[in-house]
From TrEMBL, chain A:
InterPro entries: Ferric-bd (IPR026045)
GO CC, one annotated term: outer membrane-bounded periplasmic space
UniProt family annotation: Belongs to the bacterial solute-binding protein 1 family.
Keyword annotations from UniProtKB, A to Z: Iron, Metal-binding, Signal
Source organism of this protein record: Bacterioplanes sanyensis
The protein's name in its UniProt record: Fe(3+) ABC transporter substrate-binding protein
Automatic annotation (TrEMBL), chain B:
Family in the record: Belongs to the binding-protein-dependent transport system permease family.
GO biological process: transmembrane transport
Protein name: Iron ABC transporter permease
GO cellular component, one term: plasma membrane
Listed InterPro entries: MetI-like, MetI-like_sf
Residues annotated as domain ABC transmembrane type-1: 61-268, 336-542
Compartments, as annotated in UniProt: Cell inner membrane; Cell membrane
Native source species: Bacterioplanes sanyensis
KW Transcription regulation (keyword) present: no
């Protein structure tokens, strides 16, 4: 039996058996990928001496984990990559209200929860890209107009299982109402150039290769392609960005954000981390590395991002996106958007 | 009870009973996640069931159905033909094929899907050069779309056919050797022998391999979601994440589970009267050499799955590394360490439990034991996420109870000792991959004639002694196969690992997924390749073993 005992002993020594944290730490559940959050956390640790323990995962799985663990949960803070999940966590009673002068001052009201249970940390815009050889920018106007006859078979967009599309439709429901959004979705199906699949980058690539004339994608993928040094750079340079809905509610914007959990045992440290994440340097770093837009006013944009110009962002309170999410999925289901 | 010459006394009967009880409890514990899914499905209300039934449910059902039909056809054709060719004939490369055809097993399906998409998508190199050569544009030509139901079926077939290949090859090499030779000597042609003798005799092995492949297909999420296929498991995710309706998701999972149970029962029932006992080992002389075009046809045919399932995706990943050279750092070494430790521990635990369960099923045939053991293997058909939730919910509840109780007794709260540690992960792996281990161990045991047990027993050996001295040594190949399969599967496992792992603890699969999900394929390349490399080791061991089956006896 020795051959069983040895690896088990090694395992016992090597793995973290206890889930309980020591002092001066923050335990973080993050739906943001480690690559995007770890460098910032390291900076925070270097500055404050507070260690950050991290588990990454899918938003809803982390929510479920928090829910199941209840007050025993070791997590002090939850970061998600969209507003709908922040709202879902709030509705499930997983967050607590945080009273922080710094957070209230730096984050605009529509980018945080009305009872201060969650806070936006970075903004991501969902826009229309087009092939300048085939489409003139004058032909473009709104997301809604992409359902018009002239776009039949010309649009690339990913599957409706993706939360970016769900939030986009959720925002539309807020503006147009469910019925008109349903009509729009039904018509929009005719605009697809191909069955929806792949990620946002894939939509831009398909646009560059000529499979469609217009694509819907988030800006930071485009920014990353522009900064890359391969074939993606050439593709990104051959397409152009259009800010939709500028005469109406504005371009659809979602946030990544965070809240302090109900079970937090290191509440003070967690608040410190939140405040750090909206500090000038952290916001700048976010904007630079992931080509997103800062939530804090006056923070310098990354030059590549700044080159896309100013735009008007939809300032619908973000908890609406969460509230409308289910309805959005149902509308897309009925329309046959898979 | 099987006949025994030893007078049974009350004490040994008592002992029998407690062994049976303990093992039944083990089986039930392993069934907890599945039962917890069923419980959820039956006793909670879904807010969106009507909506699902009206809109997408039929899509989920049909897409999964066709996915299974295509994957089943694929793995049967590739697996059986290659196994038959390599075990019955000699042709250029046949020795290499006998192990190399297992290599695709090291590939997670989602990674092969990334590689092929990069290659064959509209914007990929193949179609781009095609357009450059011909001057065609979009809609001027038809090219099989990789992101489709057919594409997903192809990806899954390429990585899952080794199950059928491995199990049917072992069967061709051992069981039917003598029988096939008898048929040949009576004047049957090779093809006729194949249809009338080889195939029916290998049926249990083929069915076992195919059912593993299909269960894996039904549980797959990575590939189908990447390709935009609305299969059942994609529907479970969508219901949970998109509609925020976990109860609805659990009801879908329960429906899926019911279908699997019904199909498995039909299959078992259909061969209830079949019994395959081994006649003896295959005659020990060289297989016939194929000549001329037949030889080349055999070589070409066996190259196909190897090329598509291994060489092409490896070449694609290498081309990513070429575009963006990897940097090996400490973190990377830690990832490899974590992955291997988990895989080794899970393999040992799962194998031990599988031996216990199969042994019990064979020697204590009580009415409730067969279904109990069978239910322990159901986890393989359930998407890893659903298993993870099925584990998380009851384990966290147990932790909460335990903490409340301990707090009352003393002043001490141990925290989440079950749900917040590797315990939950290892539990999840055991549940998820028990079917793989059970299938292999039971297949091995079924080839040991009961007369052997009876003779040993009649010589005065107890059941434990028979197991230790006769069965375990005879089972070496099957046990090794089981352990290695679980090892490779854990290495590739993603959803449960993602949900249940403790703080600051990542694995290769998690890392590869995070990078790929963030649409950074080039960065995911080195990690993906490492998964394949680490997975290759046991696959090579496995294949060496396959080449000389039962040489240990």
């Amino acid at each position: 039996m020795k051959w069983i005992a040895l690896p088990l002993m090694v395992l016992g020594a090597a793995l973290p058996w206890s889930s309980y944290a020591e002092q001066n730490e923050v335990n973080l559940y993050s739906a943001r990928k480690a690559e995007l959050i770890e460098p910032l956390l390291e900076k925070f640790t270097a500055e404050s001496g507070i260690k950050v323990n991290l588990v990454t995962g899918k938003d809803d799985a982390l929510l479920q984990r928090l829910k199941s663990e209840g007050e025993l949960s070791p997590a002090d803070m939850l970061i998600t990559a969209d507003a709908a999940r922040l709202q879902r966590a709030k509705d499930a009673g997983l967050f607590q209200s945080i009273d922080s002068e710094v957070l209230n001052q730096r984050i605009p009201a529509h980018l945080r929860d009305s009872t201060n249970q969650w806070f936006g940390l970075s903004q991501r815009a969902r826009v229309i890209f087009y092939d300048p050889a085939k489409v003139k920018p004058e032909q473009l106007s709104t997301y809604e107009a992409l359902a018009d006859d002239q776009w039949q078979g010309r649009v690339c967009i990913r599957s409706s299982s993706n939360v970016y599309n769900q939030s986009l439709v959720a925002a539309m429901i807020d503006d147009l109402g469910a019925e008109r959004t349903q009509t729009w979705a039904n018509n929009f199906m005719d605009s697809f150039a191909r069955p929806p699949a792949g990620g946002d980058t894939d939509q831009i690539r398909a646009l560059g290769a000529g499979q469609c004339d217009v694509a819907v994608a988030n800006t930071y993928y485009y920014g990353r392609m522009l900064k890359s040094d391969g074939k993606d750079k050439a593709i990104a340079e051959s397409v152009a960005l259009f800010w939709p809905n500028q005469d109406g509610r504005g371009t659809h914007v979602n946030v990544s954000g965070a809240g302090v959990t109900q079970s937090a045992k290191n509440k003070a440290e967690a608040i410190k981390l939140l405040e750090f994440l909206v500090s000038e340097r952290a916001q700048q770093w976010y904007a630079e590395v992931n080509n997103e837009f800062p939530v804090v006013q006056g923070v310098a944009l990354d030059p590549v991002v700044a080159a896309w110009g100013e735009f008007k962002a939809d300032d619908v309170p973000l908890n609406t996106l969460g509230e409308n999410n289910q309805q959005a999925v149902k509308i897309m289901d009925r329309a046959g958007w898979r | 009870m099987t006949g025994t010459h030893r007078p049974s006394n009350r004490r040994s009967k008592h002992k029998d009973f407690s062994v049976a009880l303990v093992t039944t409890v083990v089986a039930l514990v392993l069934a907890i996640p599945v039962l917890s899914v069923l419980w959820h499905a039956v006793f909670t209300d879904s807010s969106s069931w009507q909506h699902l039934a009206d809109t997408v449910l039929s899509d989920y059902v049909w897409q999964s159905f066709w996915l299974c039909v295509w994957v089943a056809s694929g793995v049967l054709v590739l697996g059986i033909s290659c196994a038959w060719l390599t075990s019955r004939f000699e042709f250029p490369g046949s020795r290499v094929f006998s192990w190399a055809l297992l290599l695709p097993l090291a590939f997670p399906a989602y990674i092969i899907a990334y590689a092929y998409t990069d290659l064959l998508d509209f914007a990929g190199p193949v179609q781009t050069s095609l357009r450059e050569l011909t001057g065609w544009g979009f809609r001027d030509y038809w090219f099989p779309p990789i992101r489709s139901l057919g594409g997903a079926a192809l990806m899954l077939t390429l990585v899952l056919y080794p199950y059928v290949f491995m199990l049917s090859r072992a069967s061709f090499m051992t069981q039917s050797g003598l029988t096939a030779e008898a048929a040949r000597s009576l004047g049957a042609s090779r093809l006729r022998t194949f249809w009338r003798v080889d195939l029916p005799l290998a049926r249990p092995a083929i069915v076992a391999g195919t059912s593993l492949a299909l269960m894996e297909t039904l549980a797959d999420y990575g590939t189908v979601s990447y390709f935009g296929v609305s299969s059942f498991s994609a529907g479970i995710f969508r219901t949970w994440h998109g509609l925020g309706d976990m109860n609805g998701a659990m009801q879908l999972a329960a429906l899926l589970l019911t279908v699997v149970v019904v199909l498995l029962s039909i299959e078992r029932y259909s061969r209830r009267r079949q019994r395959v006992d081994q006649l003896g080992l295959a005659p020990n002389h060289a297989p016939p050499k194929l000549q001329g075009w037949r030889a080349w046809l055999a070589t070409g045919w066996c190259t196909l799955p190897l090329l598509l399932g291994f060489l092409v995706p490896v070449a694609m990943i290498l081309s990513w590394l070429w575009q963006k050279p990897p940097s090996l750092d400490e973190e990377f070494v830690e990832l490899i360490g974590n992955s291997m430790l988990l895989a080794i521990a899970a393999a040992l635990i799962t194998l031990s439990l599988a031996i216990l369960l199969s042994w019990l099923r064979r020697f204590y045939p009580r009415p409730w034991i067969k279904p109990a053991v069978a239910s322990a293997g159901l986890g393989y058909a359930v998407p890893g996420t659903v298993i993870a939730i099925g584990i998380l919910v009851p384990l966290a509840a147990l932790d909460r109870q335990l903490n409340a109780w301990l707090l009352e007794l003393s002043d001490w709260r141990p925290g989440l000792i079950f749900s917040g540690t590797v315990f939950a992960l290892l539990f999840a792996y055991a549940v998820r991959f028990m079917a793989v281990a059970l299938n292999s161990v039971q297949a091995g045991m079924s080839q040991i004639s009961p007369s052997l047990d009876r003779s040993a027993r009649s010589l005065g050996h107890g059941r434990w002694s028979v197991m230790r001295r006769i069965q375990l040594p005879m089972l070496t190949t099957s046990l090794l196969t089981a352990a290695l399969l679980v090892f490779v599967d854990v290495l590739k496992e993603l959803p449960a690992t993602l949900i249940l792992r403790p703080f600051n603890f990542d694995t290769l699969a998690v890392k590869a997924h995070e990078l790929a999900a963030d649409e950074r394929l080039l960065d995911a390349g080195p990690v993906a390749l490492t998964i394949v490399l680490v997975g290759l080791l046991p696959v090579i061991l496995l294949s060496r073993n396959l080449r000389h089956p039962r040489s240990d006896q």
